Structure formats: C-alpha cells, structure tokens
C-alpha cells in the first residue's frame, strides 16, 4: 500500500517527526537546568526555604524531561545509519568527531553529576551538591554547543576538502569547522530560545497557581522570576535573531528570499510582506499585505537597498517557500508576543500589581507553551529553508538518503508515530500533573526507590534498616541543611 509513495519524502518526514519530538525536551532541559542552578544558588546565598522548595519542585520535572530527551536523542542517532547512511558515509569524517565530542564531554559530564544532583541533597555537602547542579547545567550547554556546531557546518560548510572516494574530509584546522560562519549566531539564538522556553513554562505554572491562590508565596516567586526573564531576555533574543538573519542573508540568501516571500528581485528597495499566500507555481505571493521598502531597511539598513529574489535562483535549488514563509512568521510573532508580555509584566510590577492582575496571569498561562512552538517553527525555517541540500550547496537531500524502498520507510515511520505518541504522551501527561500541584513548604524532591540499588552477584546486603528510622535520619539531615 506504500509502494506509490516517495522514499525520500518519507525519510524526511520521519526525521522531521523524531527531531521535532526530541527538540522539545532539550529546549526545556537546557533552560531548566540553569534555572535549578539559580534556585539552589539563591537558597545557599539567602537561606530562604522558598528557593529550596522550588528547586525540589522543578527537579522532579527536570528528571522526567531529561530522561525523555535522552531517549528521543538516541533514536535519532540510529537514523544516520539507516535512512541516511549515504549522508553518514560522505559527511561522517567531518561531523562524526563533533558528535563524538558531544558524548565524551557533555553526556559524560551530565551522567557523572546527574545522580548527585537528583539524589545527593542529603548525602553530600551543600557546596558539592551545588557544584553538581552547575555541572549538569554546563553539560546541557556543552551538548548544545557540539550539536549546533554540526548543524551549522551543514548550513555553512567550510574547512573541509574532498576526498578521492567522494567523502568530505577535515582540512587543516578543526577550529574552522567547529566555528563555521553561522555557528556563533545559531548557538546564541538557540540557547536564548531555550531559556525563554523555560521561563514561559515557569511563568505559566506560576500564573496557574496565582489564579487559584494569589497569596501563594511559591507561585509569586516563580511568576516574578519568569517575568523578569521575559522582560529582560526577550529584547535580547529579538536582537540576536536579527543578527542571525543578517548572517543568513550573507551565506544562505535563498533561505532569506523564501522567508521574505521575495519571488522577484527589487532593485529599488524591497517591501516587507506581512501576510499572504505564497504560490511557487505562479512565482508570487497572493493577497499580500506589505509595507513598502521595509524589508530593505531591516536587512540592509537602507530603504532603497536592492534585494535579490528567487528569480536569480535556479528552480531546482529553490526551497519550499510556503513552509518557510509561514514558519518564520510564526516564530517572529511569538517572539514579539513574548516581548509584549514582558513589557506588560514590567508595567504591573511598577504599579505593584504583578500578583493582582488576572488578565496578565491568564495571558502568561496562554503563553506557557509558546516557547516550544517558537523553537519548532525556527527549526522548520532553518532546515526546510536549506532544501534541497542536506549539506548546503554540496550534497543534495535526494543524494544523501539510503537506498531503501518506500514500504520499509513507511512502516518504520508508522511505528515511530505510535510509539512516540504513546511513550512521550504519557511522560508529558505526567509532567503536566506535577505542574498542576502547587509547590509547598517542605517540598520533597526526587525520591530514591524503597528497594535501593540493585545488588550485584556475590555481594550480600547489609542488615535491613528500619525504613522509619531512615526517613527520620533524612528529615534530620534536611533540617540541618535548612
């Protein structure tokens, strides 16, 4: 029943589906790990129990999100050897070592300190536990560093040479490959996006509990911290996005042409098309609502600056304009909505009404998932805008896919859809349940299983300890920490 389908299109859909699920969890865990480090640092500095309660509250959520991110990431790795084995063969000498460094640095760092962070609050000193939390947060950033370096090289490939067997081989300097022209912009833009994603989730949870009880100290603290992040970081993200756009215009001009909907060149200043329906067959944006010359002002800082259009690009190198056009607008619209909510919260704070305006709280609740939508829209803009190349201007997507039949790819795609929606749907449902419970004084963090660690053969467990005695000991240790 799948023989009439295109194997290349199915492979692209499968990778897009799995990476979309995966991208959600790192975008959340990167920001949440740093938020946990801030909470624990504030607790150590001020001694206020509200920070410790919030740390333990969000630690449980982080543990689940981190686990789902790891599992979904492992699945993605296998696709490089299955659906995209030709790509792995040709680009592997360049991207393989970078992905290996992600495992050897970030993953090992996170794995080494994650156990201490989750279960070591009452077993190690305060400073050592805080150091473990900071190492996990650093590990999430380092992971983003290497993965974005790989992706950026695929967008702006430099520093390589062509081998005799058709492979792309590293040249004289790995630094040129790692720090390729688009990498710094992508790293800054993506990491800030992760921080904003977490901030709006935290703000949405705080707003939910404020709507139910405005006197909740924990809800007030969450909401206040999140709104500070929105007010201060959203403008920085818009600036970083503008810089990223200028870099993309320099190195991937047809992607910007698709984002702007410019099918035709504009020698005397290009308009900014706000909305419309791109028609790639007719080479026009129908029902366009545009502002004259504003696109030239944004991209060239000159109202009359000429901008080339897709009429200068061969048809077989033109990206899917409709998808890129709308995904870019969704991302930008959410960015300005974040900016607006941050400004609204500043006004409420100045009037000492931050916790007393239900409309603000409802708006924050609606905006809670906005960061996830924005990062997915941004990813679609980046990856679809690179088409028809998987390595920009070097390797076409149709030449990078494995020689698999459509039925085989379709069967695995259906299996992924069923398993992902089941497993990750249950995980997301459980996270939402945890968020629905209000933080309280004496919040309990991640608890160790009652049976303890699994014993290896030949090691006899010690005498069974009275569980009530152990819980009392943990309570005493907890009071000492407070």
Describe this protein's structure.
By secondary structure, the protein is mainly alpha-helical. It has a domain at 204-391. Helix content is 67%, strand content 6%. It is built from 14 helices and 6 strands. The strands form 3 sheets. The chain has a two-stranded antiparallel sheet with strand order 1-2. A two-stranded antiparallel sheet has the order 3-4. Strands 5-6 form a two-stranded antiparallel ribbon. A hairpin with a 3-residue loop joins strand 5 (389-391) and strand 6 (395-396). Helix 1 packs across helix 6. It is globular and about 65 Å long. 40% of the residues are buried. The model is unreliable at 460-482 (pLDDT under 50).
Would you kindly provide a brief summary of this structure?
This protein is mainly α and 482 residues long. The chain has helices at residues 7-46, 49-79, 85-119, 126-155, 174-178, 183-212, 217-251, 253-260, 294-300, 321-350, 358-366, 370-384, 406-436, 467-481, and strands spanning 160-162, 168-170, 272-279, 284-291, 389-391, 395-396. Helix 1 (7-46) packs antiparallel against helix 4 (126-155) and helix 6 (183-212) packs antiparallel against helix 7 (217-251).
Question: What's the SSE blueprint?
Answer:
Layout: H1 7-46, H2 49-79, H3 85-119, H4 126-155, E1 160-162, E2 168-170, H5 174-178, H6 183-212, H7 217-251, H8 253-260, E3 272-279, E4 284-291, H9 294-300, H10 321-350, H11 358-366, H12 370-384, E5 389-391, E6 395-396, H13 406-436, H14 467-481
Antiparallel strand pairs: 1-2, 3-4, 5-6
Helix pairs in contact: 1-2, 1-4, 1-6, 1-12, 1-13, 2-7, 2-13, 3-4, 4-6, 6-7, 6-11, 6-12, 7-8, 7-10, 8-10, 10-12
Pfam families: Cyt_bd_oxida_I (PF01654)
Family: Belongs to the cytochrome ubiquinol oxidase subunit 1 family.
Keywords: Cell membrane, Electron transport, Heme, Iron, Membrane, Metal-binding, Oxidoreductase, Transmembrane, Transmembrane helix, Transport
């Amino acid at each position: 029943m799948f023989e009439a389908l295109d194997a290349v299109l199915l492979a692209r859909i499968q990778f897009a589906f799995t990476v979309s699920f995966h991208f959600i969890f790192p975008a959340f865990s990167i920001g949440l790990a740093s938020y946990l480090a801030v909470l624990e640092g504030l607790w150590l500095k001020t001694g206020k129990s509200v920070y410790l309660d919030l740390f333990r509250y969000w630690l449980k959520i982080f543990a689940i999100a981190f686990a789902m991110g790891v599992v979904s990431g492992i699945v993605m790795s296998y696709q490089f050897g299955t659906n995209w084995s030709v790509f792995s063969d040709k680009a592997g000498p360049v991207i393989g070592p970078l992905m290996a460094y992600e495992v050897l640095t970030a993953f090992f760092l996170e794995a080494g300190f994650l156990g201490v962070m989750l279960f070591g609050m009452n077993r190690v000193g305060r400073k050592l536990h805080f150091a473990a939390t900071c190492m996990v947060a650093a590990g999430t950033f380092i992971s983003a560093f290497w993965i974005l370096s790989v992706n950026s090289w695929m967008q702006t490939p430099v520093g390589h040479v062509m081998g005799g067997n058709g492979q792309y081989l590293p040249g004289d300097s790995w630094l040129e490959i790692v720090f390729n022209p688009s990498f710094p912009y992508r790293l800054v833009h993506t990491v800030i996006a992760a921080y904003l994603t977490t901030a709006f989730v935290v703000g949405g949870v705080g707003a939910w509990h404020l709507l139910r009880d405005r006197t909740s100290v924990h809800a007030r603290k969450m909401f206040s911290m999140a709104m500070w992040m929105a007010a201060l970081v959203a403008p920085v993200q818009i600036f970083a996005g503008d810089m990223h756009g200028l870099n993309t215009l320099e190195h991937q001009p047809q992607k910007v042409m698709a984002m702007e909907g410019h099918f035709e060149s504009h020698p005397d200043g290009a308009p900014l098309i706000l909305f419309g329906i791109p028609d790639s067959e007719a080479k026009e944006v129908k029902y366009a609502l545009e502002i004259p010359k504003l696109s030239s002002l944004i991209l060239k800082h000159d109202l009359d600056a000429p901008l080339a259009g897709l009429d200068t690009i061969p048809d077989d190198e033109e990206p899917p304009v409709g998808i890129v056009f709308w995904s870019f607008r969704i991302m930008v619209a959410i960015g300005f909505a974040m900016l607006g909510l941050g400004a609204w919260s500043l006004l409420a704070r100045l009037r000492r009404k931050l916790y007393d305006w239900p409309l603000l709280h409802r708006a924050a609740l609606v905006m809670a998932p906005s960061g996830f939508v924005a990062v997915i829209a941004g990813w679609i803009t980046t990856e679809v805008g690179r088409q028809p190349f998987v390595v920009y201007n070097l390797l076409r997507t149709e030449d990078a896919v494995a020689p698999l039949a459509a039925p085989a790819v379709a069967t695995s795609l259906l299996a992924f859809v069923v398993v992902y929606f089941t497993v990750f749907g249950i995980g997301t449902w459980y996270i939402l349940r945890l968020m629905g419970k209000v933080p309280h004084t004496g919040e309990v963090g991640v608890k160790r299983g009652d049976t303890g660690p699994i014993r290896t053969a030949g090691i006899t467990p010690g005498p069974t300890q009275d569980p009530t005695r152990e819980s009392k000991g943990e309570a005493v240790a907890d009071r000492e920490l407070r």
